[in-house]
Amino acid sequence: MKIGFIGLGIMGKPMAKNLLKAGYPLVVYDINPVSVKELAAAGAEAASSAKEVAQKVEVVITMLPNSPHVKSAVLGPNGVLEGAKPGMIIVDMSSIMPLVAKEVSAKAAEKGVEMLDAPVSGGEPKAIDGILSIMVGGKKEVLEKCKEFLGKMGTSVVLCGDIGAGNVTKLANQIIVALNIAAMSEALVLGAKAGVNPETIYKAIRGGLAGSTVLDAKAPMVLNGNFKPGFRIELHIKDLANAIETAHEVGVPLPLTSQVMEIMQALKVNGKAGDDHGGIIQYYETLAKHEVRGS
Ligand code: NAD
């Protein structure tokens, strides 16, 4: 099966490389030519537009920042649908608005093109190791055709419902991750300023009920003052904005998510939008006038 891959950023690059390693012929495109060159050096065929990718493959994967990028790459001029043949499948693995996934899928269907929304969780390390969690929305029979190559990028592939359900699930995931990082930050700053070594706190609690994948991924980073992304605060702001908009449309208030959103907005104003989302701790450190590093 010949696969196209559009969007070769922090996540897309290692995901595409895993497909190459698994032996899939790959045609790639990104608006950043440096990333395209890197994948071409690893064995992929370089294309000069999303349309050209679609002309050459049976399946197109997109891994782009947000809804407008997916709309532009799929529906826009020189986009995927201009090059697509009936029967082609689009697998959008970006985290976008569920409504936009439905909208793009409806346009694709007019050309006889199927679509899955299949956002992921796990971040760059799990993308590199090919062990992402993939949350899928769409038709079961379409997923069946894609399961084999999705399995080269992730170990968990769960069909969550119709198109859009993958992104609803991802929004739930992003709320849980954001609130966990905020809780961890609040707790570690308290512990450190109260005079207990924060690394000891982490070691003492990680095996108990407060332990979590988020704690294990982010505590070592924040304790080292490492805010290199990973997952940028600006992308998490995008996800929480999508979560709040979606929640309000269906009549669900998100009081805690809104608070963490404002914490992230404050960090953005302070020039931290490009930091890893573990950088949320810097907000608490400023409030408490105490840094966990070296405490
Ligand atoms: P990124 O900004 O590193 O990469 C996005 C890539 O898309 C860039 O290379 C950019 O040049 C390219 N691009 C943008 N518009 C384009 C267009 N119209 N045509 C072709 N290429 C285009 O972002 P990322 O961290 O790789 O995240 C991608 C998606 O995955 C986002 O929706 C993000 O929320 C989600 N995600 C990220 C992580 C993470 O830890 N970074 C984890 C899970 C999910």
Could you explain how this protein is built, in words?
54% of the residues lie in helices and 13% in strands. With 295 residues, it is of the alpha/beta class. It folds into 2 domains: 160 residues, Rossmann fold; 121 residues, N-(1-d-carboxylethyl)-l-norvaline Dehydrogenase, domain 2, CATH 1.10.1040.10. The strands form 2 sheets. A 6-stranded parallel β-sheet has the order 3-2-1-4-5-6, with helices on both faces. It has a 3-stranded mixed β-sheet with strand order 7-8-9. Helix 1 packs parallel to helix 7. The longest helix has 29 residues. The chain starts with a strand and ends in a 7-residue tail after the last helix. Nicotinamide-adenine-dinucleotide binds next to helix 4, strand 7, helix 7 and helix 12.
Keywords:
single chain; 295 residues; alpha/beta; Rossmann fold; N-(1-d-carboxylethyl)-l-norvaline Dehydrogenase, domain 2; 2 domains; three-stranded mixed beta sheet; 14 helices; 54% helix; elongated; binds nicotinamide-adenine-dinucleotide
Q: Please state the overall shape, judged from the principal axes of the Cα atoms.
A: elongated
Q: Radius of gyration, Cα only, in angstroms?
A: 20 Å
Please state roughly what percent of the residues sit in beta strands, choosing from under 5%, 5-15%, 15-25%, 25-35%, 35-45% or over 45%: 5-15%
Please give the number of β-strands.
9
- What is the helix fraction of residues, given as a range? 40-55%
CATH homologous superfamily (4th level) name of the largest domain? NAD(P)-binding Rossmann-like Domain
* CATH topology description of the largest domain: Rossmann fold
User: Alpha-carbon distance between the termini?
Assistant: 54 Å
Unreliable parts: none
CATH architecture assignment name of the largest domain: 3-Layer(aba) Sandwich
Secondary-structure element series: EHEHEHEHHEHEEHEHEHHHHHH
Distinct ligands, ions and cofactors found in the model: nicotinamide-adenine-dinucleotide
Broad CATH class of the largest domain? Alpha Beta
